[in-house]
Amino acid sequence: MNVFRLTGDLSHLAAIIILLLKIWKSRSCAGISGKSQILFAVVFTTRYLDLLTSFISLYNTSMKLIYIGCAYATVYLIYVKFRATYDGNHDSFRVEFLVVPVGGLAVLINHNFSLMEILWTFSIYLESVAILPQLFMISKTGEAETITTHYLFCLGLYRALYLLNWIWRYYFEGFLDMIAIFAGLVQTVLYCDFFYLYVTKGGKDRKKVMLP
Amino acid sequence: KADEAPHDEL
Q1: Distance from B9 to chain A by nearest Cα, in Å?
Q2: Least CB-CB distance to A50: which of B2, B3, B7?
Q3: First CA to last CA across chain A, in angstroms?
Q4: What is the Rg, in whole angstroms, of the alpha carbon atoms belonging to chain B?
Q5: Among A10, A111, A119, A164, which would you mutate to test the B interface (most chain B Cβ atoms within 10 Å of its Cβ)?
Q6: How does pLDDT run across A114-161, given as a tens digit for each residue?
Q7: Which of A168, A166, A188 is nearest to A178 (CA)?
Q8: What is the ipTM of this complex?
Q9: CA distances (Å), A182 to each of A57, A101, A160, A189, in order?
Q10: What percent of chain A stands above pLDDT 90?
Q11: Most buried by CB count within 10 Å: which residue of A57, A100, A158, A196?
């Protein structure tokens, strides 16, 4: 555990909590892509199956449980509790265009051809592109609420911090996981356009961030 | 090596 890994995890946790609280407090999931949230729930479920097979640390287990719990709670709020506020017409990204290629890639390129390992790889690849329905939705409506941009910033920052964590681990531990690094790079690059807008349009008078 | 160790990251 190094400082980049820890701040990355906390940034990830902050993103998840921000989104959950935003929906809960405003009693609305307007502007939030339910499809992205379902993909994140799938990501956590397929990645954290090792909860059943191996114990790494109390920190590891509790964070996994929190991530999974929050992911399903978010999906529940969007599709059940506040379903009336869900903007399904603008959430029109075709997720099969992500899930099918990512599934194929996970079967082809993995560390070990076993079910658990393929599902782990699938989750890593899927996570890297799972935000696309959300970004697509924002570009379609042309705007995002400020709190939604904070969510996206924390979520993007988390994988960027993980990149620094992997550089650290390579130098100090000789640890190298090319699948995670490659997917992490893709994931971070997808946020770059958003990062730029978030920083340049930031400020006290900001109400909304427009995406091209 | 990554393919032998459990995945200790989130």
Answers
A1: 8
A2: B7
A3: 38
A4: 6
A5: A111
A6: 999 999 999 999 999 999 999 999 999 988 999 999 999 999 999 999
A7: A166
A8: 0.82
A9: 26, 16, 12, 11
A10: 92
A11: A158
How high is the pLDDT of residue A205? 47
CA separation for the pair A152, A148 (Å, rounded): 6
| Residue B8, min C-alpha distance to chain A (Å) | 7
Instruction: For chain A, give the number of residues.
Output: 212
Output the six-digit token pair for A137.
């939705």
CA-closest candidate to residue A138, choices A92, A99, A94, A177: A92
Distance of residue B5 Cα from the nearest chain A Cα, in angstroms: 10
Tokens 């990149």 locate to A163
Q: In the numeric block, which tokens belong to residue A123?
A: 């989750």
Q: Which residues of A66-101 are buried (b: 16+ CB within 10 A; e: fewer)?
A: ebbebbbbbbebbeeebeebbbeeebebebeebbee
Nearest Cα neighbor of A108 from A123, A121, A127 is A121
pLDDT in tens, A95-124: 999 999 999 999 999 999 999 999 999 999
